[in-house]
Design brief:
15 helices; 7-stranded mixed sheet; 2 domains; 39% helix; single chain; Aldehyde Dehydrogenase, Chain A, domain 1; 6-stranded mixed sheet; Aldehyde Dehydrogenase, Chain A, domain 2; binds nicotinamide-adenine-dinucleotide; 23% strand; 23 strands; alpha/beta
């Protein structure tokens, strides 16, 4: 059985693993590998490698850093189908979806290729007589990324291309459930000419994370995952003097107004609720219908659900794959059971999936609840599976209040043909990412990604300009070349003349 090892200082680094985790093919339920779980000493070795590589990489010219990123971009483009296959084999998502995530990650690499523009400072001549002032943005040092299972290629790429482009060195702790994509990218980075030690991967669980959070040589931590862990990462990391951005969970609402194009809204809701088996932080998990929209929309949803092809991600005809693990499948099924027990109307019950030839896979067919109320568990909790709940609101204001009363605020969407109302919504809604007739409004690489409230702990979103800001810190220089006219002691506070 293969073992997925850490990648430290430019090589796969088998260590005497005291603990390891099972990696599954979610479509068959089989164990396909073991992933080494890092000890604190393994983490220390990775951080030491990153610290050793830092001085040379921090001082590498912009041209050198840019060239490595361009080469990485080319390699990624060439190997993207292979990377997507790795994602499917451990995550379970269908091949086209896996390729989609690789392409969106690739766009962040392309953004980072523009680092020479992005890391520019400002210059002011003559801020006082013969005095000039200018600002610089410099790398923060060794930075760590801790990432979730649901985008094993893309979410790390929200972080390391920009961090590395800015001159930092990086330690990635990917999800232990689908760890191989990280090692594949580490090898491509090396082939692209990245010096050994600039990018390292440690695998594992809380033990590895806890060491990163307190390690004195880690300057900044980017985290993406569930809200309780995000809060813990933020509190522990900042208490140890680190800069932290920690993106958490979500419960994204999609408002459908009575004037919306219902066919369009139905297509969008199905894709956003059941794509990647609902394991997306930007998945739509709550459909808020306004007025009589539900009566027209729900039959359209049901006919689309009936036609959905659920099957192994490797099968090109599958539209929705399995869930990531048996434990996660059981958890999601438990939510469906709870919805029924609490009185929600289960219109589509996916609990008996019957996928021919894949009986041991972690499958659940799409589930659809109607008549859900905010007091129910299926409304309150992030399910992270193919379960869509419909809440019926009488008015737009009632629908908006639901969004605002929810503790999460990652993404939200409105479907309407009323431009004025859509504009009012985008202005007043208190959520980080908004879609207008777009169900999954994931910002482009050159904008920044992030939510509000319980969906983000910290001040900066990831990638885009905020990513560059997070991975650099500012310096301002005030300079005057020696001039005999300015001799003489002056105890006054410096003033402009
Ligand atoms: P998770 O929080 O369980 O794990 C995320 C990372 O934290 C993993 O690397 C994991 O090993 C580590 N971890 C888990 N438990 C830990 C603990 N007790 N102490 C320290 N580290 C720990 O999340 P997941 O199940 O892998 O991913 C799904 C979650 O991620 C969902 O809640 C989803 O909404 C969220 N997510 C959010 C975004 C976003 O941008 N806001 C994007 C993707 C996923």
């Amino acid at each position: 059985m293969r073992t997925i090892e850490h990648w430290i200082a430019g090589k796969s680094t088998p260590r005497a693993a005291e603990r390891s985790g099972d990696v599954y093919n979610p479509a068959t339920g089989e164990i396909t590998g073991k992933v080494a779980f890092a000890t604190p000493a393994d983490v220390d070795a990775a951080v030491a490698a990153a610290a050793a590589a830092l001085p040379a990489w921090r001082d590498a010219s912009l041209a050198k850093r840019t060239r490595v990123l361009f080469a990485f971009r080319e390699l990624l483009e060439r190997h993207k189908v292979e990377l997507a296959r790795i994602v499917t084999s451990e995550h379970g998502k269908v091949a086209s979806d896996a390729l989609g995530e690789v392409n969106r990650g690739l766009e962040v690499v392309e953004f980072a290729c523009g680092i020479a523009q992005l890391q520019k400072g400002e210059y002011s001549e003559n801020v006082s007589s013969d005095v000039d002032s200018y600002s610089l943005r410099q790398p923060v040092g060794v930075v760590a990324g801790i990432t979730p299972f649901n985008f094993p290629a893309m979410v790390p790429m929200w972080m390391y291309p920009i961090a590395i482009a800015c001159g930092n060195t990086f330690v990635l702790k990917p999800s232990e459930r689908d760890p191989s994509a990280a090692n594949f990218c580490a090898e491509l980075l090396q082939q692209a000419g990245l010096p050994d030690g600039v990018f390292n991967v440690v695998h594992g669980d809380k033990v590895a994370v806890d060491r990163l959070l307190v390690h004195p040589d880690i300057a900044a931590i980017s985290f993406v995952g569930s809200t309780p862990i995000a809060k813990y990462i933020y509190e522990t990391g900042t208490a140890h003097g680190k800069r932290v951005q920690a993106l958490g969970g979500a419960k994204n609402h999609m408002l459908v107004l009575p004037d919306a194009d219902m066919e369009l809204a139905a297509d969008a809701a199905i894709g956003a609720a059941y794509g990647s088996a609902g394991e997306r932080c930007m998945a739509i998990s709550v459909l808020v219908t306004v007025g009589d929209a539900a009566d027209r929309l729900i039959p359209m949803l049901r006919s689309r659900i009936a036609a959905l092809k659920v099957g192994p991600g490797q099968d090109p005809s599958s539209e929705m794959g399995p869930l990531v693990t048996r434990a996660h499948l059981d958890k999601v099924r438990g939510y469906v059971d709870a919805g029924v027990a609490e009185g929600a109307l289960l219109l589509e019950d996916g609990r008996d999936p019957r996928i021919p030839g894949a009986e041991k896979g972690f499958f659940l067919r799409p589930c659809l609840f109607d008549r859900v109320t905010p007091a129910m568990t299926v409304y309150k909790e992030e399910i992270f599976g193919p379960v869509l709940v419909v809440v019926r609101a009488k008015t737009y204001d009632e629908a908006l209040a639901l969004v605002h009363d929810n503790p999460y605020a990652n993404g939200v969407a409105i479907f309407t043909n009323d431009g004025g109302l859509a504009r009012k919504f985008q202005h007043e809604v208190r959520v980080g990412m908004i879609g207008v007739n777009v169900p999954i409004p994931v910002p482009m690489a050159y904008y920044s990604f992030g939510g509000w409230k319980a969906s983000l702990f910290g001040d900066t979103h990831v990638h885009g300009r905020e990513g560059v800001h997070f991975y650099t810190r500012g310096k301002v220089v005030t300079a005057r070349w020696p001039d005999p006219r300015f001799r003489g002691v002056d105890l006054g506070f410096p003033q402009n003349r």
